[in-house]
Amino acid sequence: MPKSRTPKASDARSATELESIPNIGASLAQDLRRIGIKRPPELIGRDPRLLYEALCALTRTRQDPCVLDTFISAVRFMEGAPARPWWHYTPERKKKYHASSLGVLKRGG
Predict the structure, then answer these.
(1) pLDDT score, position 43
(2) Which of 34, 63, 67, 104 has its CA 20 to 30 A from that of 24?
(3) 55 and 84 in contact (C-beta within 8 Å)?
(4) Which of 49, 104, 41 is nearest to 71 (CA)?
(5) Using 50, 70 and 90 to split pLDDT, how confident is the model at 4?
(6) In Å, how far are 33, 84, 107, 109 from 71, measured between CA atoms?
(7) Could you give the CA distance from residue 27 to residue 94 in angstroms, rounded to a whole number?
(8) Class of domain 14-101
């Protein structure tokens, strides 16, 4: 029997937990918690790239760029955009950020 899933919110006001944000499942919700985002409203005004870079630094791994797309979708949704699939934001990510600069870990110091 499949595990119970959190219903997705239809708008930002109805997003009561991270898993209720469209495109955010249990794994990404846990990643957001690990970087300090505990509640959906905490995404408002956040820079998705900085969230992505914080996750890369925490895990010491360059995360797949689709994680950034998903963070963009979550921030936009919480800021009032309609729910859209994460890949809707891939062109924005590709236009704004160079793949070679994503998830670069600082060495030393």
Answers:
(1) 98
(2) 104
(3) no
(4) 49
(5) low
(6) 13, 12, 25, 28
(7) 24
(8) mainly alpha
Q: What is the CA radius of gyration of the chain?
A: 14
Span 44-97, pLDDT tens digits: 999 999 999 999 999 999 999 999 999 999 999 999 999 999 999 999 898 887
Q: What tokens does 40 get?
A: 């959906």
93: tokens are 């990510």
pLDDT at 106: 46
Q: How many residues does the chain have?
A: 109
Of 19, 20, 16, 18, give the one whose Cα is nearest residue 8: 20
- Amino acid code (one letter) for 57: A
**If we measure between CA atoms, which residue out of 69, 73, 77, 39 comes closest to residue 52?**
69
| CA pair distance 26, 75, nearest whole angstrom | 17
Residue 109 corresponds to which tokens in the numbers above? 């110091």
